[in-house]
Amino acid sequence: MTAAADERVVRPGLARRLLVRPELGAVVGLVAVFAFFGAQSPVFRSPDGVANWLDPAATLGIMAVAVALLMIGGEFDLSAGVLTGTSGLVVVTLSTRYGFDVWAAMAAGLVVALAVGFANGIVVTRTRLPSFVVTLGTFLMLQGINLGATKAITGTVQVGGLRRAPGYEQASAVLAGTVEIGGTSFRVAILWWVLVTAAATWVLMRTRAGNWIFAVGGDERAARAMGVPAARVKIALFMTTAAAAWLVGTTLALRYTSVQANVGIGQEFIYIVAAVIGGCLLTGGYGSAIGASVGAVIFGMADKGIVFLGWDADWFKFFLGAMLLLATLANRLVRRYAEEVRR
Amino acid sequence: MILQTRGIGKSFGSVVALRDVSMGVAAGEVTCVLGDNGAGKSTLIKILSGVHAHDAGAYLVDGAEVRFSSPREALDRGVATVYQDLAMIPLMSVWRNFFLGSEPRRRLAFDVARARRVAREELRAMGIDIRDVDQPVGTLSGGERQSVAIARAVYFGARVLILDEPTSALGVKQAGVVLRYIARARDRGLGVVLITHNPHHAYPLGDRFLLLNRGTSLGEYGKSDITKEELTGLMAGGAELDELSHELRRP
């Protein structure tokens, strides 16, 4: 409807519509954080600095985007962080101890990750237990498997030596390589992150699956009543998160050529925090993939910016908490506006 | 008659929820179903909408006997039900809700441009004055939401609309708005079954009135056969009301 067609759109329209964009808070935060670190550290705003903080943003961003989709669909996944470790361990173990080609080991890792995601989804949709509890169980079990299996196979808490495995060079170039742009080398992971964000945004905004994701997170009962296959949507979302964990876990394994058995623990909360900063409601039904990516950039900036300023890295945790609190408060305002009823 | 029941009945175990009810609705007409709580109104609409199958009598659509085993089947025959809770997602925009579960596609994608345009056109054709189809449904008033749900059912091919207490949660003004849209749907040639316990809403709109009490029919009346006062009296259970006013009188 054009503005001329209804005079009431004009007055509250623009400000409120801007306010109701899920990404708005994250973009404001992005500008503020960049200004803060950029003003004090010339390195931070140089191309090398940008490449430096975009790298952690990329691996975190891939996860945050997948977790954001899942949260919009009304569920959590606490096992996503540990699953990056599981995927990496599978890839490295199979290709260094069992003679797998790296590509074949990656395929096996993907199958394992998707199976975990499917299991999460099936248990949550069948039992109707809160996904918080179900995936907390998965989290602990995977943590145990990661350590137990690694110790049993290698006698230590890490597996390494991926560099000597067949197919390592090509796989590494695709996932863990770098690209020169104007004399600065950027990690290839940044490209994957952009692709994942673009694909997720397209699915969310421009496909029926996207409509269904918003619907099952907003009101599952109503969505079912309108013929939305809610269980299938949720299982697919858990599997998407698992696939993202595989992508990130494999990327990190190829980059470092070894994997610690305790890798990824604690990361699941950072994914959720990034998604929340990006405008996702903890209650589901609302949020954005781009917002989650912006949230990840904020974390990348803070993570590296604190180092550039020569501060103790522990301050990052404080920053994490403060951002989460601010973002949740801002999101609550949005929800209140969107749900207010005028009778 | 698009839709008709003949001596229809339904029991749940030993409880007879509905017995020997005959009613009908024709295209372009409104049949009001009136009754107090527990009168069997909801059992009747659940049979009509395909949630429950009847176990006595006959249910006819277009003159042919039917037995629906799901709401989907009823919908395929053009019998659509708009429940009180409307099945809408408050945080989603009007157009996303309008097409939820039946999104138009262009190749792989959800044809968003078409969804927006059709939602806007359909709402306008029903005379529904929505400021902006991009606004979340949660920001609409109760009456507006009800109207969007009606427009959605009409667009998706409903020939008979079953409306479950569409005005019960609304204020006087909003109720008027919804009643106007129901009249609009009727004028477009739909048959409407309006369930209500408010004779003031039912009488001006209805062509036919079915009165239910304790699971049985007190009769189906044409508009010329009954006055609003008689209708209200029957609704309130005439004698019971007299007794109540006697009891409530100051000693």
UniProtKB/TrEMBL annotation, chain A:
CDD domains: TM_PBP1_transp_AraH_like (cd06579). One of its GO terms (molecular function) is transmembrane transporter activity. It is found in: Cell membrane. The keyword Cell membrane applies. It is a multi-pass membrane protein. The chain crosses the membrane at residues 24-44, 50-71, 78-96, 102-123, 188-205, 235-257, 269-295, 315-334. One of its GO terms (cellular component) is plasma membrane. Keywords: Cell inner membrane, Cell membrane, Membrane, Sugar transport, Transmembrane, Transmembrane helix, Transport. The keyword Transmembrane helix applies. Part of the binding-protein-dependent transport system for D-xylose. Probably responsible for the translocation of the substrate across the membrane. This is Xylose transport system permease protein XylH. The lineage of its organism: Bacteria, Bacillati, Actinomycetota, Actinomycetes, Streptosporangiales.
UniProtKB/TrEMBL annotation, chain B:
It comes from the Bacteria. Pfam families: ABC_tran. One of its GO terms (molecular function) is ATP binding. CDD domains: ABC_Carb_Monos_I. Residues 3-239 form the ABC transporter domain. Keywords: ATP-binding, Nucleotide-binding. SUPFAM superfamilies: P-loop containing nucleoside triphosphate hydrolases. PANTHER family: CARBOHYDRATE TRANSPORT ATP-BINDING PROTEIN MG119-RELATED, SUGAR ABC TRANSPORTER ATP-BINDING PROTEIN. This is Monosaccharide ABC transporter ATP-binding protein, CUT2 family (TC 3.A.1.2.-).
